[in-house]
Specification:
By secondary structure, this protein is of the alpha+beta class. It has helices at 19-25, 30-37, 51-59, 65-70, 88-95, 113-127, 198-219, 234-244, 248-252, 254-257, 261-264, 271-282, 320-328, 335-342; strands at 3-11, 15-18, 41-44, 71-77, 103-107, 132-141, 154-164, 169-171, 176-179, 185-186, 195-196, 226-229, 291-298, 302-310, 331-332, 354-355, 363-369, 372-377. Its EC number is 2.3.3.10.
Length: 379
């Protein structure tokens, strides 16, 4: 029985800035950001958007009524959680009307959470072949104004429906994981922003890539048509790819795999899967039956190298025009406005209440009432 991804949905927020303008505002050479980091644009959010609104928008257009009845497990991978106790997946089940005989959980391990979710989903389908699992990766990467990591921020969500006999992606059951206790990137519960040792984090990313790939290669064939990697920023993934292969055909596919990452930024748990979407929609060389290498990394640190096979209907399962309309339909903001919007603090009154400005968006955080989040979702 083949198990894999049958449907994929995406969301990038409706706001972005131009990385060139950010460089100018920060007094940095433009090419340091556009070539040295490799980014072009960056999606960001306002206070009435969070991982739940992103996830709902990524998911609502891909599920049929039949899907909603068949889903019995929802897994939300994120490191941008809105609650220390309640899983964000419960909101998704509620607002999208998914079957209540359903298990809803949230997974945290830095950028690795969604990959862990897919591993869990695969095992669940193996035991329950007629069920479907919704795996969501959604994050808001935020480091603060005028910080070293500011240029690598981003916002987005990827929603993946896992089932038997998938139309898009088949899991090959060949994953190799590697874990090491390091402090390269972390965010204590008392900290508003993440703490990162940038140089050390790059070193660990490359080291764990090397170790997991070497072990994968020892156990499996490496007849890849392309390799997708976790993309904190484009040049880091490019450096990683060059560290494990000199195959010109694979290296030539890299640009196809980061077209959208360059425009969205780092979306943590979703970055690897955005790269896979980018490859599928922009490569002219891949075909059904091709094997794609995948490298997932979450600081702290956990890595996994695995592969997937493109299913027969992989091209028809994603709508390029729809996805690019979402990207091109975002509104561009000045750096001054981005600073006001993205870094605005949510300040509750003494009773734990706040109402947010009504927007034309079809999904947004409407209010927080008695510390409870209430969303508007257009039916």
């Amino acid at each position: 029985m083949n198990i894999g991804i049958d449907k994929i949905g995406v969301e990038f927020s409706d706001k972005y800035i131009d990385i060139k303008e950010l460089a100018i505002a920060r007094g940095v050479e433009v090419e340091k950001y556009t070539k040295g980091i490799g980014q072009m644009e960056m999606s960001f959010t306002s206070s009435n958007q969070d991982i739940v609104t992103l996830a709902i928008k990524a998911t609502k257009d891909i599920l049929t009524d039949e899907d909603k009845q068949s889903i019995d497990l929802i897994i939300f991978g994120t490191e941008s959680s809105i609650d220390e106790s309640k899983a964000a997946s419960i909101y998704i089940k509620n607002y999208l009307g998914i079957n209540s005989f359903c298990k809803c959980i949230e997974i945290k391990q830095a950028c690795f959470g969604a990959t862990a979710g897919l591993d869990y989903a695969k095992a669940h389908i193996a035991l329950n072949p007629n069920s479907k699992v919704l795996v969501i990766a959604a994050d808001i990467a935020k480091y603060g104004k005028n910080t070293g990591g500011e240029v690598t921020q981003g916002t987005g969500a990827i929603s993946m429906l896992v089932s038997k006999d998938p139309s898009m992606i088949i899991f090959n059951n060949d994953e190799v994981s590697y874990t090491e206790d390091v402090m390269d990137f972390w965010r204590p519960t008392y900290s508003k922003y993440s703490i990162v040792d940038g140089k050390f984090s790059v070193e660990k990313y490359l080291e764990l890539l090397s170790k997991s790939y070497s072990e994968y290669r020892r156990k499996n064939d490496i007849d890849f048509k392309a390799i997708c990697l976790h993309v904190p920023y484009t040049k880091m993934a490019y450096k990683g790819l060059n560290s494990i292969t000199n195959d010109e055909n694979i290296l030539n596919e890299f640009e196809s795999s980061v077209v959208y990452n360059k425009r969205v930024g780092n979306i943590y748990t979703a970055s690897l899967y955005l790269s896979l979407i980018s490859l599928i929609l922009n490569s002219k060389n891949i075909k059904a039956g091709d094997k794609i290498g995948m490298f997932s990394y979450g600081s702290g640190a956990v890595s996994e190298f695995f592969s997937v096979t493109l299913a027969n209907d992989f091209r028809n399962s994603l709508n390029k025009e729809y996805i690019e309309n979402k990207l091109n339909g975002r509104k561009k903001y000045s750096i001054e406005d981005y600073e006001k919007i993205f870094f605005e603090d949510i300040i509750l009154d003494e009773n734990g209440n706040i109402e947010f400005e009504k927007t034309e968006n079809d999904v947004y955080l409407k209010e927080i009432h008695n510390h409870k989040r209430i969303y508007y979702v257009e039916r």
